């Protein structure tokens, strides 16, 4: 009987994409995928440390595995991902979670088979962390989805926003060459993939480290020419590098979807400065104006942090007013979380939890209303939807996304999965649309 593995992934798309590599490597070793921890021979946690909650979840789950490991000592438990790139979290796992067998980071995933072999032959705990910034261009990917794919175009981040731990976990920014990216996407197109999401912490600074230099809009043009690919998305854009060239590319390239995730974090110039975001509220609003003008029907989403050190009621009101001015279709809001090692963690004027919580509630109340209104505008329209699968709650209902990344539920059969269909929108709430295939 073949051995079984379970991967539990936290964090962003980048981590989920890394898990697709881990899955490939484990399957080459003969493991098969399993969801039930009790039946697994290999359990791996791919961790995130962007906020404290993400870390606490991993500690909680690992603690709960102690008993299982006692019952099944031959089972291997591994921990990898962003948490393992920082000394503190790694030391905690090594000292307090002695049932963990293998620890590695974000830059040495391809070495997993040899780490497993070393653990098997020595029985020792294996800790392998790569500090050098490298980009893994070679490990094949066992994609979770048969027609939608993430494609990494770069790794790392040089921005050092003062709240953020990502640059410490993921290292310096490095871009893959366009040739390598294009070959991967051509291969995906041959296999029937229709939608590609280009991934990077800050895709707008793609190519700066390459010789010859390539810009992100130039890369988009190359991807747009690949036959078979129908939709191109990208994540994440930093407002400071969102150029006119990018906006023009979005407007002119037919496969690039009319949707952008453009985190503004705070609407207050004072807070933006302390966050080291390197743009102002006015600059951001100007970008939004241009995007709306040049890319008809563009949908917008964002990330917002509430309760950054020193945030006053006035600063927070500036955030509320941004949300209203822009009119987002989607958005993610976070309570500021102190991350040891970042500049903001050292700031003296931390905001009490109750204040953060209260502002957070006001912000989401306001945002959900706006999402509702935005979705209402879709009523009566016929939108192109890529059918992703069957709804978890109802086997007669299909789910898919519009080019604007809106989730749509509608009646249909299995045969529609993977197809682009036109759906007339007949209903909505704040988070999804409802419709009928036309
Ligand atoms: N590279 C992306 C963001 C990656 S992290 C960008 O710059 O847009 C995803 C989101 O997590 C960020 O946009 C931010 O809103 C949030 N975040 C990061 N650090 C945080 C912290 N310390 N506390 C709360 N939210 C945080
Ligand atoms: Fe973090 Fe800022 Fe880099 Fe995004 S751009 S990953 S928020 S440091
Ligand atoms: Fe988390 Fe690492 Fe992504 S810290 S948000 S998984 S880059």
3D structure, described in words:
- Helix 7 runs parallel beside helix 8.
- This protein has helices at 13-28, 52-71, 87-96, 112-122, 166-170, 178-190, 216-224, 244-252, 269-274, 281-294, 313-326, 353-376, and strands spanning 4-9, 32-33, 42-47, 76-81, 102-104, 126-128, 148-152, 154-155, 174-175, 195-199, 231-235, 259-261, 299-306, 330-335, 382-390, 397-402, 407-411, 420-428, 433-437.
- It is globular and about 65 Å long.
- The termini are far apart.
- The mean pLDDT is 96.
- Strand 16 (397-402) and strand 17 (407-411) form a beta hairpin.
- The strands form 5 sheets. A 6-stranded parallel sheet has the order 2-1-3-4-5-6, sandwiched between helices. Strands 15-16-17-19-18 form a 5-stranded mixed beta barrel.
- Helices cover 34% and strands 22% of the residues.
- The protein is of the alpha/beta class and 438 residues long.
- Bound molecules: S-adenosyl-L-homocysteine (SAH), iron/sulfur cluster and FE3-S4 cluster (F3S).
- FE3-S4 cluster binds next to helix 1 and helix 5.
- The site of FE3-S4 cluster has 11 residues, from helix 1 and helix 5.
């Amino acid at each position: 009987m073949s051995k079984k593995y379970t991967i539990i992934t936290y964090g962003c798309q980048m981590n989920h994409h890394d898990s697709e590599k881990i899955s490939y490597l484990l399957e080459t070793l003969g493991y098969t995928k399993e969801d039930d921890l009790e039946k697994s021979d290999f359990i791996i946690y791919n961790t995130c440390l962007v906020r404290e909650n993400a870390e606490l979840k991993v500690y909680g789950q690992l603690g709960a595995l102690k008993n299982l490991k006692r019952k099944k000592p031959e089972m291997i438990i591994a921990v990898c991902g962003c948490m393992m790139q920082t000394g503190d979290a790694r030391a905690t796992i090594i000292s307090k979670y002695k049932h963990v067998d293998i620890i590695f980071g974000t830059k040495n995933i391809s070495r997993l088979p040899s780490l497993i072999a070393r653990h098997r032959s020595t029985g020792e705990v294996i800790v392998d962390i790569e500090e050098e910034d490298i980009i893994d261009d070679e490990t094949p990917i066992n994609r979770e989805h048969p027609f939608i794919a993430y494609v990494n175009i770069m790794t790392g981040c040089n921005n050092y926003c003062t709240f953020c731990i990502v640059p410490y976990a993921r290292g310096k920014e490095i871009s893959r060459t366009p040739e390598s990216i294009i070959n991967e996407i051509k291969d995906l197109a041959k296999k029937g993939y229709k939608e590609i999401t280009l991934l990077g912490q800050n895709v707008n600074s793609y190519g700066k480290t390459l010789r010859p230099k390539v810009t992100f809009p130039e890369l988009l043009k190359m991807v747009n020419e690949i036959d078979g690919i129908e939709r191109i998305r990208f994540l994440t854009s930093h407002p400071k590098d969102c150029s006119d060239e990018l906006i023009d590319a979005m407007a002119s390239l037919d496969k690039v979807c009319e949707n952008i995730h453009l985190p503004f974090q705070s609407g207050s110039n004072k807070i933006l400065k302390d966050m080291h975001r390197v743009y102002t509220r006015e600059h951001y609003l100007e970008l939004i104006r241009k995007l709306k003008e040049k890319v008809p029907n563009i949908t917008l989403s964002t990330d917002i942090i509430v309760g950054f050190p020193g945030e006053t009621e006035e600063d927070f009101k500036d955030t509320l007013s941004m949300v209203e001015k822009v009119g987002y279709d989607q958005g993610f809001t976070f309570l500021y979380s102190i991350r040891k090692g970042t500049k903001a963690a050292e700031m003296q004027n931390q905001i009490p939890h109750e204040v953060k919580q209260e502002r957070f509630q006001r912000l989401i109340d306001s945002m959900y209303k706006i999402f509702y209104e935005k979705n209402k505008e879709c009523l009566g329209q016929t939108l192109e939807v890529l059918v992703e699968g069957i709804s978890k709650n109802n086997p007669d209902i299909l789910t898919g996304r519009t080019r604007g990344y809106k989730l749509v539920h509608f009646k249909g059969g299995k045969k529609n999965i993977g197809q682009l269909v036109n759906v007339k929108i007949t209903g909505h709430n704040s988070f999804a649309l409802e419709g009928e295939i036309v």
